[in-house]
Amino acid sequence: QIHVVQNPLALSLKIMTLGDRFLLPGDRYFLPLWPQPGLVPRDPSRGDRFENIAFFGLEENLAPELRTPSWQEQVASLGLTWRVVSDFDLWNNYSEVDAILAVRDFGRQEYSWKPASKLHNAWHAGVPAILGYDSAFRHERKSPLDYLEVLSLTDTLKALEKLRDNPQLRRDIIQNGKLRATETTPDQLTRRWRLFLETVAIPAYYRWCASPNLVKQSFLWRRRLAIQTKESRKNLQKLRNLLGIRSRLRALIPKV
């Protein structure tokens, strides 16, 4: 009856298929995801050093253009190092990182089901973020200092150069991130969850208990159908994602 979503765009029925609207009825509420547990911020002793650029996550979720040897060579030509941190046990460690880069796709896909975690973690870790077009990031953006948005490989290289050559900009971004990080502290998010539970979830539970049996049976039938078709719907989404990745990889192959 209630769906807690981690991206405000997921509140819109426009992004749902007719099947999902039927199978997943109920009101939707946005609550930000928690920051990375045990997050280790950038080591302050690094000062104004700008050397290490990292992506925290599974490599398959990184834009194909950023997985090539050519990309590593271009980053090295700027005097920087590039690292993909795919080990989950290291996703909390930003101590030697000077900026993060996270782009799922250089198109304008909104990824309505994804949270703004990489941006929030960057604020808490004290590092600048270079990010793609994700709707979760755009929803959070209140200032150009929140993060640098890139829509192409050229944009990304220019953003790295901009950060490399402007220590004051990096300091301004980091200071702004400290202020923005106060919005997603565990205490703040706990208060939001408590308000949601007390004013939304508990009253909704009592309304459900008081609803007619026919309404309950209809709802439960749709939920059973959603569970039964979950895997097939997930596989269909994976196939769509795979086709999208293959088309982008073909575009990277030089034409003879």
Can you describe what's shown?
The chain is of the alpha/beta class and 256 residues long. The protein has helices spanning 18-23, 69-77, 117-125, 135-140, 153-165, 167-181, 186-210, 213-228, 230-252, and strands spanning 2-5, 27-30, 52-56, 81-85, 99-102, 129-131, 148-149. Strands 4-3-5-6-7 form a five-stranded parallel β-sheet, with helices on both faces. Strand 6 (129-131), helix 4 and strand 7 form a beta-alpha-beta unit. It is globular and about 65 Å long. The model has no long low-confidence stretch (mean pLDDT 90).
Percentage of residues in strands:
5-15%
Sheet of most strands: 5 strands, parallel
What structural category characterises the helix and strand content? alpha/beta
Number of helical elements: 9
Q: What is the gyration radius calculated from CA atoms?
A: 21 Å
**Low-pLDDT regions:** none
The count of β-strands is 7
Distance between the termini: 56 Å
